[in-house]
Here is the input.
Amino acid sequence: MSIGMKILNCTPRALKRATACRLCRANPFPSFGARFKSGPYGYIQAKSLFFSKNGEPEDVLKLHTHSISPTLPPSSILVRALAAPINPADINTIQGTYGSKPTFTSLLGTPEPSIVPGNEGVFEVLSAADQSSTLQPGDWVIPAVSQIGTWRTHAVFGEKELLKIDKTGLTAIQAATVSVNPCSAYRILRNYGPSSGLKTGIPARPLELGSGEWFIQNGANSGVGRAAIQLAKLWGLRSINVIRERASDEETTALRKELQDLGADVVVTETEFLSREWRDQLASITRGGREQIGLGLNCVGGKSATAIARSLGQGATMVSYGGMSKQPVLLPVGLLIFKDIRFVGFWLSKWNEKDVVGRQHMINDILSMTKNGQLVDVPTKEISWEWETTEDTLRNAVQHGLDGFQKGKGLLVFGDT
Amino acid sequence: MSIGMKILNCTPRALKRATACRLCRANPFPSFGARFKSGPYGYIQAKSLFFSKNGEPEDVLKLHTHSISPTLPPSSILVRALAAPINPADINTIQGTYGSKPTFTSLLGTPEPSIVPGNEGVFEVLSAADQSSTLQPGDWVIPAVSQIGTWRTHAVFGEKELLKIDKTGLTAIQAATVSVNPCSAYRILRNYGPSSGLKTGIPARPLELGSGEWFIQNGANSGVGRAAIQLAKLWGLRSINVIRERASDEETTALRKELQDLGADVVVTETEFLSREWRDQLASITRGGREQIGLGLNCVGGKSATAIARSLGQGATMVSYGGMSKQPVLLPVGLLIFKDIRFVGFWLSKWNEKDVVGRQHMINDILSMTKNGQLVDVPTKEISWEWETTEDTLRNAVQHGLDGFQKGKGLLVFGDT
Here is the structure.
């Protein structure tokens, strides 16, 4: 997604020494640290993770060192990275299994056409091509478009590819993690819900904020799940939350407690959820069906998705936004026909494209809740990316960025590169 | 559904002789044939199929002979049956697997509370309780509500449970088969279609009549399928029709020809449809994806439903209205999330309840197309129900009413009982 820019690769000798190459001797941005190797032409040294073919991150991900010309193309912005999460969609993009496949390009100057992964992150503006730009050095920006490629120390983006955020009172981690998981939870809870007895079978209304209406979700301890719990609490909705058992009972109890502290009304383990007793438990939660569950969130698939669907009330909607189990969603026909449950998918990228202004409002709303302490920081597993950090270290960190994600998602945190 | 009425069972001796019982000596409706056994009280002899517990029709279906008092409750209508089809939903109702379960009542006077099956059919009005009724002797009526119980020679219904149709130019078979299958096809084609790039993920628009937009359906030779083919042709839509292979190639070719004659644009066998070549064939039909398929109709489930879903274009809707294979619908998560396909069920009964006026217009529209010869009669396998027809014969006919349904659906045709 980064727009055309002039790139010169540094000499191997210069790279080996980790000093300026012959083209990079002076530093045009002295305030941004000594690591900006620059010369008479003001070239910036940068590093990018990239892949030139699809596969497992540990097999295909490489680190590229290159130079960025300080002569920026019109309407472009030079930025340095502060933090960038590792999301499941990023891994799927590298594997080639994601819904949209970015194009391999020669922009980065890699031996073969390549893609820089990373869909989410926060950058600091170093300079703008146009004096009149609304973006000024020191501003924080997040991607305004999908698949911008955030896993790199520096980049030149088109001004329209970036969205400025008010950094006051925010940490880089909060800013880096705002635009995927909390936004998904926000959109789904605000836009989907049961059919309200309308004339045709298709339209459905959103859940009514402040009404205490129920929704149910699996993968409740995921980033989206945790955001949904907190937003529901803030918005006057009630949540039933399905989690997988942890390695020990103590850990399960601790997680249950953690989600309850976030505002979860009901937390149930997957074993309880898939057992015969769940029906009675559900009847008691919904007061014998007097309070129907109008919305289900599914990020698992397989049996868990079917059980979510079976828990829903007449005319409800089940929104699938992920498929962690890699099992298809399996729907008894009766749920479709007689219970009038509708099954839809949710893809944040599409929403963002369709409703740019709505997205800005949503981001501001979420950031304001974050600043107010109404949204708790998502647990992260920080991976430090310093100038010296090796390709092996980064590749390994990405490959395992999702392991044990319940304890925190992988987050690349950039040093003063 | 029939309203309260006074019923007297005839004496066994009278039944054995198939003559009037001691309460039934005169015939208050002489114009309706000698079979109306009646006496001083004007009681009508009637026969009803019924079941008092769920199970296979051959196990639980029984024939009850009873008398109907000519003194009708206010706002009620006495009718005699002309024809009533055997639909899959009727069998499922008897089996107890249907979505709505009618209540076993004592209205019929059977030894145990019972239900009269049959959801569709046409009756002739014999008399109305109120002189001012809009229904007059000789009028034809079809059920205005679900589960009215059509498998009986005579009945007393509430006036509001019946919908008068203009019988001019119609056969009883045409009138008896108008309200389930053609209505389902009509509703689905007129109300469901792809998302039209609207802001939220849920709303979808109907197919645009006259545009040549594509839909795809399995079970294309079913009653709904045949109606959909013909309606699509009349309305300027195009259909891709999946049929199961017949016993011989000749029969398959004949069926293919038959559906093409009805107006099918493309007919494909399930084997072709589930093969690897289908993707290329589909690309050629849709001109390399330039003409996306916006709507899928599924009455099969299992692999066939998944293949229908995979054939659909971005943002399309798949409507399930049946599950003949008894296999659940299996959805790869990517179809939900990345292709934004939405999956809904269609239940005509619910539509009829929600939109009574719309249903009347639809019935009139379909009957007018039938009279114009624009809709071909659905193939039927007629089962004659005369006064003498035995319980065994009827039970057996119902049990096998759906066998070889591609050659015609079972239809009870009443003699001058």
